[in-house]
Amino acid sequence: MAATNNDVFILFPLTYIIPTYILYTVELFTMFVNRRGTKFAGSFFNIWVSSAINNLICSILYFVTYRGSKAVILGRIYSIIPSSGFFITLILFIVYGSGSTQVVLDLVLCFNRFTVVWMGTKHVTFWKKYCKIILFIAFCIPAATTWETWFFDVKLSLKNASDPNQGYVWNPTNTKAIPWMQTPLIICGTVVITATLSFLMNCYVCWYLLKQKKNKNGGKMISKQDLKLFLYNLLIFLTQAVQFCLQMVFLLLPPGHILYSFAISIQFFVMDVNSLAPAWFILFMSSALRTSIMDFFGKTRVSVFMISTNSGVGNHHLRMRNTGTSSN
Predict the structure, then answer these.
(1) Which residue range(s) make up the domain with 239?
(2) Strand, helix or coil at 318?
(3) Could you give the 3-state DSSP secondary structure of residue 310?
(4) Which of 118, 142, 197, 314 could form a disulfide with 101 if both were Cys (CB 3.0 to 4.6 A apart)?
(5) pLDDT by residue (tens digit) across 168-180?
(6) Burial class (CB in 10 A: 0-12, 13-18, 19+), 47
């Protein structure tokens, strides 16, 4: 099938989505190869790695289920996927779960920065002891609130059987299978609660930083690195705030309202910001990460190797540089 104008609209975001996936991969790989050092051994980066992996999964599967399915040019691929069953239900369950996990992990990152101010140096001991437990809970909460997806009778079918150019829909067909478990309402509630808590903690940290600026002789001075990571967290909160506003529109306004229609039209891009922006934010805010990436890929590293020669009198070592010169 030939690409349509709608296909261009759907697939154009891949021009920034794919480079961000590559950036995520580079960042995660860099942190992995440097895991034995101290630069990325802190609790913040442990949480960030979990969040980054979750963001990648969420973004990829969200594109597959809600965006790519509407592209006519991809119709042949979707036509060979089973129309129902375990596989497509599992994918939608992961989309719902990872979407909720995304905002919960953002809250955990915010709490991590909050403890730096609230607990001082004791926050290091706290996170060494409880980081894994907190991350476990952060992943369990969304799973406990999206399990009803398995009862929704998920289907993958043409949006209009008489007009294949309208693409496919990958949606639950029986969202009221469990009346007391309303997934949209639960996800909305999760966003509202996490965004509110993040807002309160960010307000406290901002207040403390302003107080510290006025009184530089305070006992708990925030390091420059911690300040940068807090600024990163503040940027993440802004993405949470946008998601919060979007969920409020879906919750409070009728489908026919102009703001509701506008929210529908931008929800894909809001999801992109929530999932992809952290990769760029951390790159800009962490000089240690930038330096490690540049070092690993040879941007600042000078290639030096030793050649041992035996002249019969003694061993001589030549240090060869990448300029082709040598020195004793």
Answers:
(1) 5-301
(2) strand
(3) strand
(4) 142
(5) 999 888 888 888 8
(6) buried
Domain total of the chain: 1
Query: Does some domain include residue 318?
Result: no
**Residue 40 burial (CB < 10 Å; 0-12/13-18/19+)?**
buried
309 pLDDT exceeds 50? no
Provide the pLDDT for residue 111: 93
How far are the Cα atoms of 14, 177, 248 from residue 174, in angstroms, in the given order? 31, 6, 24
pLDDT in tens, 48-85: 999 999 999 999 999 999 888 888 888 889 989 999 99
- Please provide residue 223's backbone torsions phi and psi, each rounded to the nearest 5 degrees: -70, 160
C-alpha triplet 52, 55, 56: angle, nearest 5°: 90
Structural domain contains residue 310: no
Output the pTM of the full model.
0.81
Residues pairing with 309 in the sheet: 316
Burial class (CB in 10 A: 0-12, 13-18, 19+), 187: buried
Write the CB contacts of 266 (distance below 8 Å, at least 6 apart in sequence): 246
